[in-house]
Amino acid sequence: MGIEVIVEGLTKSFGNQTVWQNVTLTLPPGEVSVMLGPSGTGKTVFLKSLIGLLKPEEGRVMVDGVDMVGGRERDIYETRKLFGLMFQDGALFGSMNLFDNIAFPLREHTRKKESEIRRIVMERMEMVGLLGAQGKLPGEISGGMRKRAGLARALVLDPQIILCDEPDSGLDPVRTSYISQQLIDLNAQIDATMLIVTHNLDIAATVPDNMGMLFRRELVAFGPREVLLTSDEPVVRQFLGGRKEGPIGMAEEKDEATLAAEQFIALDDTPPRIVPQLQPSPGLPPRQAVQRRRARVLAMWDQLPVAARTAIKAGLAPVQEEHA
């Protein structure tokens, strides 16, 4: 099972510019979480802070008893091996074929024999649907295949926590749906804790168990997916609805005069339709995270907004029976 990631009071700045401040959340073990936010809200910075590649000025990130912010460098280095990181562009070496790209972490961080490396690499390539492409160079394949190669490379060290940075960037809607299914299938197979950073609404609607959103240097919310999907918070409704009206502007947040003028525009108050979460592909085991999440959601039932409870009841018959 994946490892819980506890984030407490995290604040990150570059010079006088605060990226976000006092971010507190917990990534539940083995569940899939998504972090949303407009461009420029520091989502990638957040990922790099979790793994210890960037140092926030305040707060802690606790992973398996190690603080990835203030711990000893040796401990951080060792704990980093629990992570698999999928970069936006795949971050593949252009001069290496896919096999060597995916094998790179094994050759760099382990003393495994080449026969064992080959077995692991081929297993991971099969897992992401790339068997037969191991001899190709990154420049010879599609963007979607490069994404999957990057995902395979993130998996070779058997991570218990997987961080995906904009897995949909540069992909068309069809290939985005393929990568979404791939992430759910992966969770079913290895039960890792997963955090996906994205601003893709299709991924947000269909993939995660939990959702969060960054805006105006703050964590707007983080919790079960139904809480954000039914939220009446203006910035959440604007983002999920893809509307111009609301706090998010083209560059940064809108000024008060613009927001005041928009108060006279009638917004659509129709409750959002929550689409079902993706299920593992036929032949794969059920996701172990589902039952753990169900128990966790029931434990916090009284603290959930009414709209979120209604959505959960509609989506989970067992929950409906217990709380009818």
Q: Separation of termini?
A: 32 Å
User: Percent of residues in beta strands?
Assistant: 15-25%
General shape? globular
CATH class of the domain at 5-82 and 159-233 and 278-322: Alpha Beta
Taking the sheet with the most strands, its summary is: 6 strands, mixed
Report a brief summary of the structure:
The protein is an alpha/beta fold and 324 residues long. The protein is 39% helix and 19% strand. It has a domain at 5-82 and 159-233 and 278-322: P-loop containing nucleotide triphosphate hydrolases (Rossmann fold, 3-Layer(aba) Sandwich), CATH 3.40.50.300.
If you had to describe this structure to a student in words, what would you say it looks like?
The protein is built from 13 helices and 10 strands. 39% of the residues lie in helices and 19% in strands. The strands form 2 sheets. It has a 6-stranded mixed sheet with strand order 6-7-8-3-9-10. Mean pLDDT is 87; it is low at 262-266 and 318-324. The protein is an alpha/beta fold. The chain is globular and about 55 Å long. It has a domain at 5-82 and 159-233 and 278-322: 3-Layer(aba) Sandwich (Rossmann fold), CATH 3.40.50. α3 packs across α4 (114-127) and α4 (114-127) packs across α5 (143-155). It has helices at residues 43-50, 73-80, 98-109, 114-127, 143-155, 173-190, 201-206, 225-229, 234-241, 256-262, 289-299, 306-315, 317-322, and strands at 5-14, 17-27, 32-36, 58-63, 66-67, 83-86, 161-165, 193-197, 210-215, 218-224.
